[in-house]
Batch of 2 targets.
Target 1
Amino acid sequence: MNKTAIIYSYNTKKTGKIATLIQEGFEDSTIEMLNAEEITEDIFLSFDHIIMGVATWFDGELPNFWDEFVPALEELDLTGKKIALFGLGDQKGYPENFLDGVGIMAGILETQGATLVGFTSSEGYEFESSKALRNDVFMGLAIDYENQGSMNQERAAAWVEQLKKEFA
Ligand SMILES: Cc1cc2nc3c(=O)[nH]c(=O)nc-3n(C[C@H](O)[C@H](O)[C@H](O)COP(=O)(O)O)c2cc1C
């Protein structure tokens, strides 16, 4: 049976809330929550399906809790892994870098051979540019707590249903 993990920093409040919504949506007690700040290569590689929470901080950069693991990630063979990214960003506050963290992480994972799933439409968002876009589609789930928080639940629920199919 395929093993699934949701990885995010336990020190984040908003990312953590979305991680919990996603876990609840799966209604599957075998899905493990893991702290991004304590993840190791061996643990990461022990999962077939991985959902990662990646906010954007610092004007278009990854949050610093990923800094320690990214160099390790850049050495891993992720062939055969299906990975889905959910990102948090603020399209009004940072319209030129909306959700860039997802694009940065997507690039790292694809370079290492992972198959990315969970792409979503960019309709309904307003921003100038985003590294998370490929052919006008987000390479993951885009959550904007600051400006569209009332849509979080609906967006997360629809994404989980999409992932159930794409992970199958
Ligand atoms: C200092 C700072 C810089 C930020 N930079 C960006 C950015 O470049 N792009 C973006 O989309 N969001 C940016 N954000 C918004 C955060 O991604 C957003 O607030 C998110 O909900 C944070 O989630 P977290 O608290 O779980 O890390 C920034 C927020 C702060 C406080």
Note: Residues 12-15, 55-60, 63, 88-90, 94, 97-100, 145-146 surround flavin mononucleotide (CB under 6 Å).
Target 2
Amino acid sequence: MPTIVVVETSAGASKTLEAPSGGALIDICDRQRAPVPFSCRSASCATCQIEVVEGAELLEPPAEEEQDLLDVLEGPASSRLACQAKVKPGPGLLKIKPIGT
Ligand code: FES
């Protein structure tokens, strides 16, 4: 089962989320009240931009809509949109850090 660790940069704290069967990262974060901000939820505002610190292979590759926005955003090469990213089922550790917190 993948484990997701959300790192809160402002306080230096982290929250661990369980994602036993993978799925949409936005739903995993919502259900477990992770400190990842969302707004449009449709790959247009970038509020949910995250840096993938570890375990990028546990995410499905970005779809065209997500990649189009990532291409115009400034951010780490490992950044993703939490509202679009999908977690693969299976074991592993995924560490993400909200950008701008
Ligand atoms: S919430 Fe707007 S791009 Fe993800």
Note: The pocket of FE2/S2 (inorganic) cluster is lined by residues 38-41, 43-48, 81, 83 (CB under 6 Å).
